[in-house]
Design brief:
- The complex is a heterodimer of chains A (119) and B (113).
- Chain A has strands at residues 3-7, 10-13, 19-26, 32-38, 44-52, 55-58, 64-70, 73-78, 87-94, 109-110, 114-118.
- With 119 residues, chain A is an all-beta fold.
- In chain A, strands 2, 4, 5, 6, 9, 10 and 11 form a 7-stranded mixed beta sheet that branches. Chain A has a 4-stranded antiparallel beta sheet with strand order 1-3-8-7, with no helix packed on it.
- In chain B, 0% of the residues lie in helices and 44% in strands.
- Chain B has strands at 9-13, 18-23, 32-38, 45-50, 55-56, 61-64, 70-75, 84-91, 107-112.
- Chain B is globular.
- The chains are: A mainly beta (119), B mainly beta (113).
- The interface between A and B is medium-sized, with 31 and 27 residues.
Chain lengths: 119, 113
Amino acid sequence: SQTIHQWPATLVQPVGSPLSLECTVEGTSNPNLYWYRQAAGRGLQLLFYSVGIGQISSEVPQNLSASRPQDRQFILSSKKLLLSDSGFYLCAWSSDGTGLRHLNTGELFFGEGSRLTVL
Amino acid sequence: DAKTTQPPSMDCAEGRAANLPCNHSTISGNEYVYWYRQIHSQGPQYIIHGLKNNETNEMASLIITEDRKSSTLILPHATLRDTAVYYCIVSPLPGAGSYQLTFGKGTKLSVIP
């Protein structure tokens, strides 16, 4: 079965410090990968998505970046955090649409989330 | 911007059916209707999806109007654990170009004892 893990679960960082959140998926190959952010009291905002190794699409211009060094690894980074970067970050995966039809439901599977507080 | 419209909040008595509406008047022919829910401090959880026929699974039922411009998610016997934010999303299946689900603000459902 497929699983998704992201870490760390919680972190508190000072303004101007770097950030690295990591997400890995097991039990599937060539997944689509996503990073979402949820600020306090707000909806989910899609930050980045990737359809393959080294292929990153950014939805919102900001001081965050994403990388996909391996098929099932997705990393969210920042060189200098801002106060506005605080929030709940969620990694997710979906099938790439090339699998068996009955498995290609388009369902997004989310990780446990990483809560970032920038002080 | 989200392609769906949902009421910001709803209340439902425990044990009664919860009917959550969603308008998607600009839905395209190849777009499915997806429902997710998010319990506080957790990642969203998939509930159900459909194209044009009504769908039912162990969690809920999805009723899509014949013109596909609106739908209703039905939780037949709401429990306190169903208190969550419910998101209605329209999207084609993966494989139709880039696949990404855009979450709006959803409906906050409160199940009342």
